[in-house]
Design goal:
The complex is a heterodimer of chains A (294) and B (199). Chain A is built from 8 helices and 9 strands. In chain A, helix 4 links the parallel strand 1 and strand 2. Chain A is 38% helix and 20% strand. Chain A folds into 2 domains: 117 residues, Dihydrodipicolinate Reductase, domain 2; 123 residues, no CATH class. Chain B is built from 6 helices and 9 strands; from the N terminus they run βαβαβββαβαβαββα. In chain B, strand 4 and strand 5 form a beta hairpin. Chain B has one domain: fumarase (Alpha-Beta Barrel), CATH 3.20.130.10. Chain B has 199 residues and is of the alpha/beta class. The termini of chain B are far apart. The chains are: A alpha+beta (294), B alpha/beta (199). Chains A and B meet through helix 3, helix 6 and helix 8 of A and strand 4, helix 5, strand 9 and helix 6 of B.
Chain lengths: 294, 199
């Protein structure tokens, strides 16, 4: 197997899948919101969202024009061959997908604002590596739009503020964001670690499907409590009022310093795009988030 | 909640008839402008330079489209709205100088822009954020592009549209603002939410 070529082709495929077709769990959540929403304006927003999702899927064009800043999450089996070639392959895939899908060229130098034109640049695409047992490589394409990313917030609370401070921080973040992150959103809440870890796990929490419960019962309870509280704001779809400000809240925790309580809130827009596949040593591919007919 | 079909150029009189919750569809010309285009346009005024295109009676669209080019022909592939609040510090002057009649975006705008809309007769039409394919369907042709040196998302894309919408009038020219109303309601509920969470 020519690893570089296989990974490059797969990553182009994953980027295309991610931007044209929502994962099953997100579509289902949007449909449920449409059914349960009561106000006319909110229903109209969700109807347009669902129509748009269907049209994009049919025409194989991007759901949203903001095809995001590109990130890959790679869970690499330590015994897999060609791991050294994967970074280059993911960069090439990003350049190719920009032309072939097409993606909007979003990556700019943060100081000069000059656009590279192909979605690559310093640390872009961002590649998050995890080493796993075995010889399977799992790749997730996670293109994330700026509308929701611009609302991400981080705070280092004092241990005395504790759980109360944390809950308050999440509610305040949603209120401050209002209509801007394209609600209904998915919230990733990262608790603990150092500040960098808190934001990292808040974003990772967004990778967990909405129909998959948190394995920790206490955290699952916190998620439900935050979900209900956030939806009580009534900010609603697109901030025009309604029952669904969020489709879900996903919490991820890390141990933290005894003198510290970092909390991060990562916003994901309703166009919660991600696509995952597993690559086996014989070159065969198993798609996880999408049904792919070959 | 009335439905209006507007053709560009749109007059002040037509705009003044609109109220929040009305739905509009636009046919004619709309021009995209984001952060960098707003900045450059206002720089041009300071320098006394004319813009490459007139906004008078048209709609400004807060949008950076996905485009493809075959030969020398551009096609819009996806073109939903971007977050309008980023343009808040620049929009008053933009409206005052360039006389657009509709601002299309998502997420609403701040007090100063609402004031400009009242003063000069402009409405804010909210398009569903992220609905890029739906928007592209109503874009019939790319009439031109200016300031492409700013990058594809930030350039001025001059678009021919047919029944572009539905746009909800979320801020009208009478000072009403649906987004502000939603946030106000949320603020009122906050003590109740805190109580429910026990904080």
């Amino acid at each position: 197997m020519n690893v570089a070529k296989v990974v490059e082709d797969l990553a182009v495929d994953l980027l295309r899948l991610a931007v044209v077709e929502l994962p099953f769990d997100v579509k289902e959540a949007l449909q449920r919101a449409f059914q349960e929403e009561e106000s006319e304006v909110a229903k109209m927003q969700l109807k347009a969202i669902l129509d748009n999702v269907e049209l994009a899927e049919k025409e194989r064009t991007p759901i949203c024009q903001d095809t995001g800043l590109i990130a890959f999450y790679v869970r690499a089996g330590a015994c897999a061959k060609g791991l050294d070639l994967m970074e280059g392959a993911l960069y090439n895939a990003t350049r190719r997908a920009t032309k072939e899908v097409p993606l909007r060229p979003n990556a700019v130098n943060p100081l000069t604002r000059v656009n590279s034109g192909d979605n690559t640049g310093w640390l872009t695409p961002y590649i998050h590596w995890e080493i796993a047992l075995g010889d399977v490589v799992e790749i997730t394409a996670f293109p994330k739009g700026a509308g929701s990313d611009n609302m991400c917030v981080l705070s280092v609370l004092t241990p005395a503020e504790g759980m109360k401070g944390l809950k308050r921080f999440v509610i305040d973040a949603v209120m401050r964001a209002g209509a801007q992150p394209c609600p209904p959103n998915i919230l990733g809440v990262g608790i603990g670690g150092g500040p960098d870890v808190a934001m990292k796990i808040a974003k990772e929490a967004l990778l967990r499907p909405l129909n998959q419960a948190n394995p920790d019962a206490e955290l699952a309870k916190l998620e439900k409590e935050l979900y209900e509280a956030v939806n009580m704001t009534g900010i609603g779809p697109m901030g025009l009022g309604g029952k669904f400000t969020v489709l879900g809240v996903n919490v991820k925790c890390a141990f933290t310093h005894t003198g510290s309580l970092p909390v991060a809130v990562a916003f994901q827009c309703w166009a919660a795009r991600r696509a995952t596949a597993k690559l086996y040593p014989d070159g065969s591919i198993e798609y996880i988030t999408h049904k792919v007919v070959r | 909640m009335a439905i209006y079909k507007l053709n560009t150029p749109i007059s002040e009189e037509e705009v003044r008839k609109l109220y929040v919750n009305d739905i509009i569809y636009i046919t004619g010309t709309i021009i995209t402008a984001r952060d960098q285009a707003h900045k450059r346009a206002l720089d041009y005024i300071k320098q006394g330079k004319p813009l490459p295109v007139s906004f008078e009676g048209l709609a400004i669209y807060h949008c950076g489209p996905v485009v493809s080019k075959v030969g020398d022909k551009w096609t819009v592939v996806a073109a939903g709205p971007t977050t309008s609040t980023r343009m808040e510090t620049l929009e008053y002057e933009f409206i005052e100088n360039f006389k657009a009649r509709v601002i299309i975006g998502k997420g609403g705008m701040g007090r100063r822009t609402v004031e400009a809309m009242k003063r000069f007769g402009v409405v804010y039409g909210a398009f569903v954020g992220g609905a890029g394919t739906l928007a592209a369907k109503a874009i019939k042709a790319v009439k031109g592009v200016e300031w492409l040196d700013l990058g594809v998302p930030e350039a001025l894309w001059i678009l021919n549209v047919e029944d572009f919408g539905p746009l909800i009038v979320a801020i009208d020219s009478h000072g009403n603002n649906l987004f502000e109303e939603a946030i106000k309601r949320a603020e009122e509920r906050k003590p109740l939410i805190y109580e429910k969470l026990g904080v």
